[in-house]
Structures are given as C-alpha cells and as structure tokens.
Amino acid sequence: MTGMNLNYMKVKESYLFADIRRRIEEWQKENPGKKVLRLGIGDVTQPLTPSVIKALHEAVEEQAHAETFHGYMPECGDPALRKAIADWYRKRNIPVNPEEVFVSSGASDELGDLLHLFERSLPAMIPEPAYPAYADANLMDGREIIFPGTDIENGFQPLVPEEDLTALIYLCSPDNPTGAVCTKECLEKWIAYAIRTESVILFDAAYESFVCQENIPRSIYELEGAKKCAIEISSLSKTAGFTGTRCGYTVIPMDLVRDGLSLNAMWVRNRTTRTNGVSYILQKGALAVFSEEGQKEVSLLHEVYRRNAKTFMQALDEAGLSYAGGKNSPYIWMKCPCSSGSWETFDILLKQAQIVATPGAGFGESGEGWIRFSMFAEEEDVEEAGRRIIRLRNEKYF
Ligand code: PLP
To answer: To test the ligand 1 pocket, which listed residue (45, 176, 203, 209) has its Cβ within 8 A of the most ligand atoms?
Structure first.
C-alpha cells in the first residue's frame, strides 16, 4: 500500500467522447472530404460579445501599468462582480446578497471542489440520466451514489425517492442531457424532502438562460425554503460563451446551516485556503456580461441557439420522431427510432447522414435508447442536419 486514492479505480475511463472521436476519425478516413455536422459536444460556437471583448482588452492594458496593475484578487471574487451578480438576482426579485455569491472558474470546478464540505459517508443522490461528472466526482471521493429515476411520461422530471434519506442531492434544470426543466411543483417536493431529511441540494443552473417559459424557475431560490437547503451553481460558459474563457458563480445562502455550521462560512474558509481567486482580467470580462449592454448582447447569443432548436424540432416533427427538451434548453433528447440502441442510432446518423450526436447511454444506464443533439452548433449545420434526418426517415434508415 502506498497511500494512493484507490477510489480512482472505480471511475471508468471517460470513453464516451473518445469513442465518438474514434468512430468519426475511422469514418472520415474511409470517406475523405465529406463534411460532418457536429451536434455532439455541448460547446458553444458563437464568439464572446463586444462588451466582454472590450472589457478584457481594457483589463489587459491595466495590467501593463504600475498605477492600474492588479495582483492577487480577493479569493471569493471581486466585490464589484459579486455585487453585480447579486443585483442581477435581485432584479428578478430573488434576494441574494453579495456575500452569498462566490466567483468561480466555472461550474465543473465548483461541482468537484464543493464536495470538500461534505463527509464521505454522506451519499450522493443523482437522478439519472445525468451529466457524468456528478457521479465521477463522487466516485473519486469514495461516496456511495443513489440514482433515483426520472418521470419520462412527465418530461423527465427527477423523481423524489419514497424513502427519507440524508444525502447530497443533484438537480440540474434545464437538464443536460434530457433538456427537461424542473417545474415549481417538482422543486417544491425536492425542497420539502431536503428540509425534512437535512439534505443539501446542489442545483446546477448552468443552462438557466435558456428558460423561456414564464412559469419555469430559472433559480431554485424562486421557491420558498430553498435558501435553507440549496446551493446554486452557475456558469457563464453557455450563458455568455465563456467555455474557453472560464468564469462562473456559486450562491451559498447565509441561511444554509447543517450541524451548527454555516456552509457559507465554511466555503469562505475553503476558498481563502485552497484558491487565490479568479484572474482579474476574466472577472472584468464577466462583469461586462452583467451590464445593461452585456445582457442585451448575450440575449442575442441565446436567440441563435434557440432558433437552432426551433429549426431542428421542426425537422424532427416532420420526420415523426419523438423527443424531449429543446423548448427551454439547448439540448434535444431524441428517442431512438425502431427500438434501436443509442450507439446503433449514432452509427446510422454518422454513416448515412454524417451527423454527430451523443449516445444517451453515455449519461447512465437509463439513457440507453436515447440520443442527444446539441443546438450550440452553427446555424447552417443545424438546418442541414434537419434536412438529412428527414431524408433518413423517408429512406427508411430508421
Ligand atoms: N453542468 C452541466 C450540466 C454541464 O453540462 C456543464 C458543461 O457542459 C457544466 C456544468 C460545466 O460548465 P463549466 O464550463 O462552467 O465548467
């Protein structure tokens, strides 16, 4: 024994995207010159907006001069950015204080780092199908995982377990991969469960900006009681095109107390020890997102991806294919036709129509029989993919 974390042996190699890449490469080798339409990976294609670019340039220039140079930033985030994010919540009548906001390097980092607040004996509860990083981060930590199902008939709403259990509960709305959004009634049930069992909800709001239905919550704090039981993890990756720039934010309410400990105070202590904060330059770029102009600009980005979803849903409707998501989400979760498996459908799409999607089986066992399309692709690729799917259907490939 050499003292290594043997829990890493429980985590499978991340085969999903490597496998997808290998299959595409093999196909392209045999069919050189043919264009592949990439609707697989959930990475954005639209560039950063003008306000953000301007702010980034200005911040770089400031770093060039002794009078405006910035060294270490406050570990929990630039006070101006924490305030701008709190104000942005408040504008929607959600009372969040700047001290409850923590600036991060993105949701993935936070989803892993936050686990440090919880004992390994606390099980994780992850409604499946789910973003694979939730389970993997917990497996690496040696935590037991419970997978409650989702209510497929009801648009993949995560189902509250019948048994009361104290756990670390993951909710994602709009969801990756199903594109489902939690209704108020669904969240009310989870909040009541978390308060009753003294569980903590990790609410992943990475895709909140895609909600367009009025009655669907964009933040868990729109519901009463949530500040007593939930941490909200958000990101500018999909909201403002920051996937390669890296900035996000996490809200830990002052009211969230377990075992007499304030989780907010614990996280302040954690950050002041385990990070020296997010770069000054990036925080300046992020601040621009929350300006009036910045908000107008990012809403234009969302419109591009929403238009893509509309175009693609119209094609699936015309082809008579069943799907979930797409309405409040950049993901469309299609039922594989003719009872075929996820990988089988992946191969038909690639070989017969040169469309890349992500097999649902990669999001857990219950994702088998489904396939995910990302609407973050280029507009003309989505239009072409829609036409090709209709052709596949007419030619009875599925
Ligand atoms: N949460 C979900 C559900 C995601 O799908 C992703 C990325 O695809 C993330 C979090 C990670 O976001 P970030 O780029 O902020 O790390």
So the answer is: 176
* Phi, psi (deg, nearest 5) at residue 251: -110, 125
Distance, in Å, from the CA atom of 216 to the CA atom of 209, rounded to the nearest integer, reads: 12
Ligand 1 centroid–CA 391 distance in Å is 33
- Nearest partner of 251 among 141, 391, 88, judged by Cα: 88
The Cα–Cα gap between 283 and 290 comes to: 11
Interval between CA 34 and ligand 1 midpoint (Å): 31
Strands 150-151 and 157-158: antiparallel
Ligand 1: centre distance to CA 235 (Å): 7
Ligand 1 atom showing the smallest separation from residue 107 Cα:
15
Ligand 1 lining (C-beta closer than 6 Å): 42, 106-108, 131, 172, 176, 204, 206, 235, 237, 243, 248
Question: How many of the other CB atoms lie within 10 Å of CB of 315?
Answer: 20
CA 67 to ligand 1 center in whole angstroms: 37
What spacing in Å lies between the alpha carbon of 108 and ligand 1's midpoint? 6
> Over its length of 398 residues, how does the chain's per-residue pLDDT go in tens digits?
789 999 999 988 777 888 899 999 999 999 998 889 999 989 999 999 999 999 999 999 999 999 999 999 999 999 999 999 999 999 999 999 999 999 999 999 999 999 999 999 999 999 999 999 999 999 999 999 999 988 888 889 999 999 999 999 999 999 999 999 999 999 999 999 999 999 999 999 999 999 999 999 999 999 999 999 999 999 999 999 999 999 999 999 999 999 999 999 999 999 999 999 999 999 999 999 999 999 999 999 999 999 999 999 999 999 999 999 999 999 999 999 988 899 999 999 999 999 999 999 999 999 999 999 999 999 999 999 999 999 999 999 88
pTM beyond 0.70, yes or no: yes
